[in-house]
């Protein structure tokens, strides 16, 4: 049976923890009484809140006593319940308002690694409004006003819990796209006569592919198994891709389509540029296609031994790429010579590094710590005075790394802010030069109606 996320209900005695526990598990399991301290051992139960499914843990009322006392031993049980918890619900009594015990335990919970949701119970009356404002003093964010006894505020509790339950499920999900340690699938693409087959022959140290001064010798995508420093590589040589307007013959059209399929099935794509010709518009179109397919990209200047004024050429191509591929920063730019073999080891090493980044999974905890910092540094705009609320982020898949941001009014979020988040992601998790996917999603509240 799959392990469920754990949500621990915490608070001082007699704030309604057991009532909330019974509400979440859907039956009267925990004993409820006005007398404080009824619950002494922690109790677990299968809880459901709309489509959220988790293990709810009812705990003893927290009291600030030494470990040798009964109250102290009960507190140790509560601390143990926090191990591996996805979230903790700190319950306060909205009718009574904050007490020194509430403040003490809120300060303690802020020192733990567990996400804390502040729940103001018994908030069914107007008298609770003052306590709700006062609850902000605890530094735990917006309080969720509920009445566990009457079932009020469950929609707001759902919205507060959903990010943490979803985060747990994402972390537990076995990612089918995860790197299985198989051979690096490395495709070499470029315009005709850029030196693709010559480079592969030099890598293999044999005349494996037909080469010559004539453009368009290679027609099919050729896969070759190879090993580099004990690591398996599957090299894919492809036909040169010309401008679409120049592709007239049926055979060349088929070759170009075969190259596009090779890009689809590659992990890392090396776009080879002829250093004697520099960067052309067609090169940028090929690079854009690789990125649109979500493949890791390396740009390599070939025939480097024949290039003149190498420093100026390299810097010029680098500047042109920064302008022409503005949607992604940090694409590796390398130099190589198929004639001398210079730069080949660096190329293969960088290809493995790019595959590692392309396959990277960032934990939800790391992601949301970054997310909070990014929002604090540059809050989202408020178009027409309407606040855009970004709640949390999770990684949906890898290869390429794909992330989903949940929030409200996301249709009003400008593209410039999405680009800010993507660039911040790249810098925070060393994802430079890797295509990223960022999806905005508003999670519907099932209790909204």
From TrEMBL:
GO molecular function, one term: hydrolase activity
Residue positions binding GTP 2: 190-197, 237-241, 302-305
Keywords: GTP-binding, Hydrolase, Nucleotide-binding, Repeat, Ribosome biogenesis
UniProt: GTP 1 binding residues: 11-18, 58-62, 121-124
Superkingdom of this protein's organism: Bacteria
Record function comment: GTPase that plays an essential role in the late steps of ribosome biogenesis.
Protein name: GTPase Der
Originating gene: der
């Amino acid at each position: 049976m799959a392990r469920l996320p754990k949500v621990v209900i915490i608070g001082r005695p007699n704030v309604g923890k057991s009532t909330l526990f019974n509400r979440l598990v859907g039956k009267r399991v925990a004993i409820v009484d006005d007398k404080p301290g009824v619950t002494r051992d922690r109790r677990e139960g299968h809880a459901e809140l709309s489509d959220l499914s988790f293990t709810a843990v009812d705990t003893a009322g927290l009291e600030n006593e030494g470990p040798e006392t009964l109250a102290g031993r009960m507190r140790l049980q509560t601390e143990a319940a926090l191990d591996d918890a996805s979230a903790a619900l700190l319950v306060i009594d909205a009718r009574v308002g904050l007490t020194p015990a509430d403040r003490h335990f809120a300060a303690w919970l802020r020192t733990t690694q567990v996400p804390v949701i502040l729940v103001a119970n018994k908030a069914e009356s107007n008298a609770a409004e003052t306590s709700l404002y006062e609850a902000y003093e605890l530094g735990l964010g917006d309080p969720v006003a509920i009445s566990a006894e009457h079932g009020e505020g469950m929609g707001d509790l759902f919205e507060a819990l959903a990010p943490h339950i979803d985060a747990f499920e994402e972390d537990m999900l076995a990612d089918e796209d995860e790197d299985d340690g198989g051979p690096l699938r490395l495709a070499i693409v470029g315009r005709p006569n850029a030196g693709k087959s010559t480079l592969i022959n030099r890598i293999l140290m044999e005349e494996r592919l037909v080469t010559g001064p004539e453009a368009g010798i290679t027609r099919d995508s050729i896969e070759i198994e190879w090993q580099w420093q004990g690591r398996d590589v599957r090299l894919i040589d492809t036909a040169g891709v010309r401008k679409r307007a120049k592709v007239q013959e049926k055979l060349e059209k088929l070759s170009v389509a075969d190259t596009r399929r090779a890009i689809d099935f590659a992990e890392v794509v090396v776009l080879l540029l002829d250093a004697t010709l520099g960067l052309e518009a067609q090169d940028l179109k090929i690079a854009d296609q690789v990125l649109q397919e979500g493949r890791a990209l390396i740009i390599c200047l070939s025939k480097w031994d024949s290039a003149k004024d190498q420093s100026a050429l390299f810097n010029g191509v680098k500047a042109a790429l920064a302008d022409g591929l503005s949607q992604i920063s940090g694409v590796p730019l390398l130099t190589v010579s198929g004639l001398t073999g210079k730069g080949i080891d660096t190329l293969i090493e960088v290809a493995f590094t790019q595959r590692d980044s392309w396959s990277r999974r960032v934990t939800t905890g790391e992601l949301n710590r970054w997310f909070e910092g990014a929002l604090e540094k540059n809050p989202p705009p408020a178009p027409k005075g309407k606040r855009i609320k970004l709640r949390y982020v999770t990684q949906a898949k890898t290869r390429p790394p794909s992330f989903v941001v949940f929030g409200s009014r996301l249709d009003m979020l400008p593209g410039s802010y999405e680009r800010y988040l993507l660039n911040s992601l790249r810098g925070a998790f060393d994802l430079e030069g890797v295509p990223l996917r960022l999806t905005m999603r508003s999670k519907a509240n099932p209790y909204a109606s």
